[in-house]
Amino acid sequence: MTDWFRDTAFSGNLLLAVPVAALAGLVSFFSPCVLPLLPGYLSYVSGVAAQDLETARRGRLLAGALLFVLGFSTVFVLGGALFGSVGLRLEEHRHTLSIITGILVIIMGLVFIGLVPFMQREARVHAVPAVGLAIAPILGMFFGLGWTPCIGPTLTAVLSLSFATDDASATRGAFLTLVYCLGLGIPFVLAALGFGKFMRTVSWFKRHQRGVSIAGGLLLIAVGVMLVTGTWNDLVGEMQTWITGFEAPV
């Protein structure tokens, strides 16, 4: 287990991909599909009316938020494991897959910016189950399975990174999507711990959501170009060289 964690945490691919995945999760949270709906999400998963969120017991809100994050994380991590596993089986087509997924990520970046109008429609489950803690994980799974135009592009990019790399595997795919879930989920937990203060803190992002979307889209486009041109794997190889150079002699 120790060897697996060391090899996973210090692989060149993950050292480069983990910050991208975490930032993609944060960008997803601050997107127009999530941040404006935060009071509604917390209300549903905790069973507390939206107008009472600031005065509700922190323990109840925290429990609801954690269960909600657990729900969508389960869906996303399983998806990451599946993509990584598929990538492992298609090892001989790695270069072609890198180009295809790079093009897909570029398209998703354009979608995130809003330059592909016909892909801006929501594609999510609209039926919402009864409110309360018991249903919070299920609502999280609905959230994960539904995907909206704001979340889908960033998650697609993360899945692509687990799919089209030389060291693709189910474990690495799951690990990468877990990092994405942390980037997306931690703000939910922070909001539950102090809803009023958190909403005042993120008011700047609410006023500049268009800028956040453009920045997120440009990040995806940059990653896509790197995959298409092979720059991503070149950087991975370079980082693996750095890591090897710093290893202590046995």
TrEMBL record:
<keyword id="KW-0812">Transmembrane</keyword>
<feature type="transmembrane region" description="Helical">
    <location>
        <begin position="96"/>
        <end position="118"/>
    </location>
</feature>
<feature type="transmembrane region" description="Helical">
    <location>
        <begin position="130"/>
        <end position="155"/>
    </location>
</feature>
<dbReference type="Pfam" id="PF02683">
    <property type="entry name" value="DsbD_TM"/>
</dbReference>
<protein>
    <submittedName>
        <fullName>Cytochrome c biogenesis protein CcdA</fullName>
    </submittedName>
</protein>
<feature type="transmembrane region" description="Helical">
    <location>
        <begin position="175"/>
        <end position="199"/>
    </location>
</feature>
<keyword id="KW-0472">Membrane</keyword>
<feature type="domain" description="Cytochrome C biogenesis protein transmembrane">
    <location>
        <begin position="16"/>
        <end position="228"/>
    </location>
</feature>
<dbReference type="InterPro" id="IPR051790">
    <property type="entry name" value="Cytochrome_c-biogenesis_DsbD"/>
</dbReference>
<dbReference type="InterPro" id="IPR003834">
    <property type="entry name" value="Cyt_c_assmbl_TM_dom"/>
</dbReference>
<feature type="transmembrane region" description="Helical">
    <location>
        <begin position="211"/>
        <end position="232"/>
    </location>
</feature>
<dbReference type="GO" id="GO:0016020">
    <property type="term" value="C:membrane"/>
</dbReference>
<dbReference type="GO" id="GO:0017004">
    <property type="term" value="P:cytochrome complex assembly"/>
</dbReference>
<keyword id="KW-1133">Transmembrane helix</keyword>
<comment type="similarity">
    <text>Belongs to the DsbD family.</text>
</comment>
<feature type="transmembrane region" description="Helical">
    <location>
        <begin position="20"/>
        <end position="41"/>
    </location>
</feature>
<feature type="transmembrane region" description="Helical">
    <location>
        <begin position="61"/>
        <end position="84"/>
    </location>
</feature>
